[in-house]
Structure formats: structure tokens, C-alpha cells
Design brief:
Blueprint lengths: L1 H20 L4 E2 L2 H21 L5 E7 L3 H17 L2 E7 L5 H12 L6 E4 L9 H7 L11 H8 L8 H12 L8 E5 L6 H10 L3 E5 L6 H5 L4 E4 L17 E4 L3 E2 L5 E2 L4 H4 L5 E2 L7 H17 L1
Parallel strand pairs: 1-11, 2-3, 2-4, 5-6, 5-7, 7-8, 8-11
Antiparallel strand pairs: 9-10
Helix pairs in contact: 2-11, 3-11, 7-8, 7-11
The structure holds nicotinamide-adenine-dinucleotide (NAD).
Length: 302
């Protein structure tokens, strides 16, 4: 095991030296940081188990959308790694809203279940907002319930949406200061852009939120010390949007014309001007699941 690790370390060191010599942005390694978080949680969960506390998470999927099945599978694997017992509910496409709400109600009352996750999107005949509101805020590990969102906006305790929470961890664990810095978020979705802005504000950043109606997006982005890109458009943000030395976080996930994964940021262009950047894959993506696991452990401690 240890012998096998050496060539990897050499390879990484060589890559890092090359990047420095070529004056390219430092890579913010989401794979490594998410693994650290999962290992910390694994220890915490083992300690809780030794005191007789077992953590349970219910994962509900309605229908069999292939992308959703992959996400659900990854979440179950992460539970297994950390030592969280996961209960899986794979419901048929024709499940009614009432049936789904009844199941959520049962899980809300089940003391062995600490976190409830409904994989989104749900089929069109089911109203997403009604489903989210049916989950007890104490078990809302996705952080989508209006009570959780409200708590975040007034600085109270509550679960936070996993992707933006993961980005704060990425920045902190990579020693990027947020306090007092210009932070620009591209995108204002409920699950990424808005909670991201609130979290950066909580860390005392000076925050600007941009969106599809923003005038002169480039000019606003070029003010950013920290630029978080959640625009949902492959490789849209190139070096012309980025101030020299900025930290760039790429939330996007797409397939490019060669079927390779890419983000909302044109990596090859931006790595020439940024001081640090998240790659896709291996940046923000792995952090989302790590933070979901973190929320589940927190839910068990309530
Ligand atoms: P969304 O489509 O809900 O929101 C996109 C936002 O970008 C909107 O607020 C819109 O106003 C803004 N926008 C669109 N075009 C614009 C333009 N030309 N200029 C400025 N703003 C513009 O997307 P989302 O759910 O926030 O996700 C964003 C991206 O992040 C997607 O690629 C998604 O797949 C990805 N994502 C990744 C993870 C992860 O774990 N890595 C999690 C969630 C989302």
C-alpha cells in the first residue's frame, strides 16, 4: 500500500513544481479535501458507535433516472465508508405525491433515522416544494427546507445546502482568506448561488451576486478576489472575466464535445491568470457528498 503511494506522491510533486515554474494557478484539490473530511467523520461516527449511538440515513429515489441512480449509489457508498446505516427506498415512477409524503412522515417519526434525502428531480406529477417542506427540518440534511434557508439568512443554526457548504470548506482548508475580500457569485439558484452568497457574507466577504440579467458581467467578475461560478454553461468563463491572482471556484459539471467532463470555467484559459482554481472533475463535486455526510452526523447530534 505504502510503496504504491510513492509514485503518486512523486507525480503530484512533479506536477506542482511544473505548475509553479510555468506560473499557473495552484490546484484546489477537492478529492483530497473531501477524503480528509470523510476520514474525520468516520472517526467521529466510530466514537459515537462505541457510546451506543448508531446513525441512520434514508435515501429516497422516485423513478429510475440513470443520473439520479448514480448520485444515489455514490451517497450510499459514502454512508457505508463512514459507518452511517443507509436505508434505501427505490419507489416506482408512478408513486403518488400522497404516498411519498406518507413515507416521509413515517421517517420523520422514526428515531433510528437522522437524515432524510429525497433525490431530485422528482417526476413531474409530484410537487418538489411540497416534498421538501414535508421533511422535518431536524432531518433536512440537504438543507433545502424553507426553515433551513431562513435560518441561514438570519445567521441562525440550521442545515446548509451541501455544495456551497463544501465550497467554504474548500476555501478554508486551502488557506484562502474570505474576510474583507471581494467575492462574486455567478448564478442565483436556490441550491447553489443564493446560499453561496449568504455563506460568503457569513464569513465577512464583500459579496456581489450576478445572474442572467446582470449588465456587464465581465466587469463585475473582474473585481473579484474570489469568483464562484455556478452559471450552468460549459466553459463560459474564460480569462477575460478573471482578475490576475483571483481564486476561481468552478461549480459547473458538463460533458464537452469530446464527452469529457468539464465545468462552467474554461480551465486552460483561466489557470493562466488565477492564483488558485478548482478542477472539474476533482474540485467541488466530491465536496457535496462529504458535506451531506457531515450534515447527517450533525443531525444525529441534535
Ligand atoms: P441553475 O441553472 O439553477 O442556475 C444558473 C444560474 O446562472 C441562474 O441563476 C442564472 O440567472 C445564471 N445565468 C444563466 N446564464 C447566465 C449568463 N449568461 N450570465 C450570468 N448569469 C447567468 O444552475 P445551478 O443548479 O445553480 O447549477 C449551476 C451549475 O452547477 C450547473 O452546471 C450544475 O450542473 C452544477 N452543479 C454542480 C454541483 C456539484 O456538486 N458539483 C451541484 C449543483 C449544481
Amino acid at each position: 500500500m505504502i510503496e504504491n503511494d510513492f509514485p503518486d506522491i512523486e507525480k503530484i510533486l512533479r506536477k506542482m513544481t511544473n505548475r509553479k515554474e510555468k506560473n499557473m494557478a495552484r490546484l484546489i484539490d477537492g478529492k483530497k479535501i473531501s477524503q480528509q473530511i470523510k476520514d474525520e467523520l468516520k472517526e467521529k461516527v466510530a466514537a459515537m458507535k462505541s457510546e451506543g449511538k448508531e446513525i441512520g440515513m434514508a435515501v429516497i429515489q422516485v423513478g429510475n433516472d440513470p443520473a439520479s441512480s448514480v448520485y444515489v449509489g455514490n451517497k450510499k457508498k459514502a454512508c457505508e465508508y463512514i459507518g452511517i446505516r443507509s436505508e434505501s427506498y427505490e419507489l416506482p415512477e408512478e408513486t403518488t405525491q400522497e404516498e411519498l409524503i406518507t413515507l416521509i412522515g413515517k421517517l420523520n417519526d422514526d428515531d433510528r433515522i437522522h437524515g432524510i434525502l429525497v433525490q431530485l428531480p422528482v417526476p413531474k406529477h409530484i410537487d418538489e416544494d411540497t416534498v421538501i417542506k414535508a421533511i422535518s427540518p431536524r432531518k433536512d440534511v440537504d438543507g433545502f427546507h424553507p426553515q433551513s434557508v431562513g435560518a441561514l439568512s438570519i445567521g441562525q443554526k440550521g442545515f446548509v445546502s451541501c455544495t456551497p457548504a463544501g465550497i467554504i470548506q474548500l476555501l478554508k482548508r486551502s488557506n484562502v482568506d474570505i474576510e474583507g475580500r471581494e467575492c462574486v457569485v455567478i448564478g442565483r439558484s436556490n441550491i447553489v448561488g443564493k446560499p453561496m452568497a449568504l455563506l460568503l457574507l457569513r464569513e465577512n466577504g464583500t459579496v456581489t451576486v450576478t445572474h442572467s440579467k446582470t449588465r456587464d458581467l465581465k466587469e463585475v467578475c473582474r473585481r473579484a478576489d474570489i469568483l464562484v461560478v455556478a452559471v450552468g454553461r460549459p466553459k463560459m468563463i474564460d480569462a477575460s472575466y478573471v482578475k490576475e491572482g483571483a481564486v476561481v471556484i468552478d461549480v459547473g459539471i458538463h460533458r464537452d464535445e469530446n464527452n469529457r467532463l468539464c465545468g462552467d470555467v474554461d480551465f486552460e484559459s483561466v489557470e493562466q491568470v488565477a492564483s488558485a482554481i478548482t478542477p472539474v472533475p476533482g474540485g467541488v463535486g466530491p465536496m457535496t457528498i462529504a458535506m451531506l455526510m457531515n450534515n447527517c452526523v450533525e443531525a444525529a447530534l441534535l
